């Protein structure tokens, strides 16, 4: 009797896999570098901050971009800037990712724009909410934070992974935060917990797709000088605690592109932000000590979302 063909799930052939050789076969690890030139990339949260700076870096590296955010005029002005710099003009898709279903529609629209061939999605859009859980509970503002920060990356991944698998390659990039490990009062309940949930889902997705040609990357920014900067908005009893100054969104974007080109699976910037991620007790201590300086009583009287 002839040999039967193997039955089971398809075996993937990585098309641009480089191996970093460790001290033995057991420590051999695949390093899959992201090539930007000609890459078709969907970038959410492109209208401001890290996303806007990242759009500049990606375009300069030769990527073709679809940009998403709510503020259409900012997406258009960004497209104008990139075209004026002689980069490929991006396609803008204004959308409110706080609305259930919007992410799946965005994925479908991006696929259509790229002719069903997409190389990377960068789930960068983020929403914050500072307020007391004891008042807000699960109201619509709280649910919107999870819609933007958690459900949108999962929905976009699911919308795009089949097309990536059909092509034999693709990269999912989820932007979380060091706040995932620092459960400060009024910030950890919604924003922080949504980022912790996304970090966990990102690691699980990487394992789920380990035998596939899809790369799954977590970007973990620390304090970056943008409109979303976490701790400035907290109601401090006196002045905010002394922390290291935030880094610029441009330097964070540069670190992301460098990490992608080096094939990193997790990109943490600035590098000292890795401490609470790897030593969770440090994050809890920072939250506990810092949390005593937060005026939670005042917040219970004035919770609000933005
Ligand atoms: N800044 C920090 O210190 C820091 C630290 C750790 C992690 N991060 C993460 O970095 C990412 C970028 O944030 P950023 O610091 O650059 O802040 P940002 O300047 O406020 O950018 C947030 C982006 O998300 C978009 N966005 C927010 N809500 C949206 C919605 N409902 N629908 C569609 N787009 C929406 C915004 O666009 P529109 O307003 O035009 O919709 C904007 O482009 C976020 O995921 C954030 O959590 C930031």
From TrEMBL:
Record keywords: Oxidoreductase
Membrane-traversing stretches: none
The keyword ATP-binding is assigned to this record: no
UniProt feature coiled coil, ranges: none
Domain of life: Bacteria
Annotated signal sequence range: none
Similarity section: Belongs to the short-chain dehydrogenases/reductases (SDR) family.
Name of the protein: SDR family NAD(P)-dependent oxidoreductase
């Amino acid at each position: 009797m002839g040999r039967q063909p193997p039955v089971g799930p398809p075996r993937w052939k990585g098309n641009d896999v480089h191996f970093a050789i460790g001290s033995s076969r057991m420590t051999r690890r695949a390093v899959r570098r992201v090539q930007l030139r000609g890459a078709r990339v969907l970038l959410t949260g492109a209208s401001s901050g890290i996303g806007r700076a990242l759009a500049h870096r990606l375009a300069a590296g030769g990527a073709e971009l679809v940009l998403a955010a709510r503020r259409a005029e900012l997406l258009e002005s960004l497209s104008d800037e990139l075209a004026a710099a002689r980069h490929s003009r991006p396609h803008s898709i204004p959308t409110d990712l706080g609305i259930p279903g919007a992410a799946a529609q965005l994925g479908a629209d991006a696929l259509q724009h790229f002719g069903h061939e997409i190389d990377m999605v960068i789930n960068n859009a983020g929403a914050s909410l500072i307020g007391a859980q004891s008042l807000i509970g699960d109201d619509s503002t709280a649910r919107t934070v999870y819609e933007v920060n958690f459900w949108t990356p999962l929905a976009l991944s699911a919308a795009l992974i089949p097309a990536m698998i059909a092509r034999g390659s693709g990269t999912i990039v989820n932007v979380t935060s060091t706040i995932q490990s620092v459960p400060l009062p009024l910030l950890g309940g919604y924003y922080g917990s949504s980022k912790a949930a996304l970090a966990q889902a990102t690691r699980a997705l990487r394992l789920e797709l380990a035998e596939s040609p899809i790369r799954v990357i977590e970007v973990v920014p620390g304090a970056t000088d943008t409109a979303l900067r976490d701790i400035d908005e907290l109601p401090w009893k006196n002045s905010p605690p002394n922390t290291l100054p935030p880094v610029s969104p441009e330097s964070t974007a540069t670190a992301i592109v460098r990490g992608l080109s080096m094939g990193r699976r997790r990109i943490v910037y600035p590098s000292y932000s890795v401490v609470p991620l790897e030593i969770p007790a440090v994050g809890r201590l920072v939250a506990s000590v810092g949390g005593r300086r937060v005026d939670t009583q005042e917040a219970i009287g004035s919770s609000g979302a933005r």
